[in-house]
Amino acid sequence: MDLILHGQNAVVTGSTSGIGLGIARLMAQAGARVTLNGLGKPEEVAAARAEIGALMGGGDAPFIHADMTKPEEIRAMIAEIGVVDILVNNAGIQFVSPIQDFPDEKWDAIIAINMTSNFHAIKAALPGMLARGRGRIINIASAHGLVASPNKAAYVAAKHGVVGMTKSVALEIATSPVTINAICPGFVRTPLAEAQVAPLAAKFGVSEEVALRDHLLEKQPSKRWIEVEDVARLALWLCGPGSGAVNGAALSIDGGWTAS
Description:
CATH topology of the largest domain: Rossmann fold
Number of domains: 2
CATH class of the largest domain: Alpha Beta
CATH superfamily of the largest domain: NAD(P)-binding Rossmann-like Domain
Strand content: 5-15%
Number of helices: 9
CATH architecture of the largest domain: 3-Layer(aba) Sandwich
Helix content: 40-55%
Shape: globular
Radius of gyration: 18 Å
């Protein structure tokens, strides 16, 4: 892979697994120095640090255990890194419930982690980017940042907010070389997503193949998973040459979900 990000510092929130780890992996392969952030068992964090560190030439990748619900920890993370050339806001959680039964604490946590953390990270990293005359901000939103589904009020509200925030900030910085964009994936093949298939099969009394196609991926016309690497490659392109005119976009990668 071409080292198109050589010499650049990247931080990817929620990068100890799933989409975030996939993005960190490709950015490290492209030459970036990647700082990881996220939750997970100690052995999982250690494995992620070792993998990304090896791609960067050896040793463990830097890891900052900032709590995405705490603005002061987000600001401290950006300050500790110092020069942030690439900021990927990926951290997120989910909870599903009809709104009348939705726990207040789950609403607060989803809004804080999925949306408000983006605000604090952008606010902390953007001044340095503008001063240096370079920078890329990528917010991992969702197809649910563009369309809704029932029983996901907090997640849909947060992801719509991320898309709106992305557009607003893009207008504020439009005359600078810095860009900000949102990626809006559909259902991505991650361990957490794949774990939903077997319970759906049991619930509806069907095979896992049918449960995946007709229930989990019901709204995704392709009826296929979005692969983590597909999302990561889009993020990498947004950081590389030829992407400078893309600013304030909500880029769908959803198997046709939001085409209708």
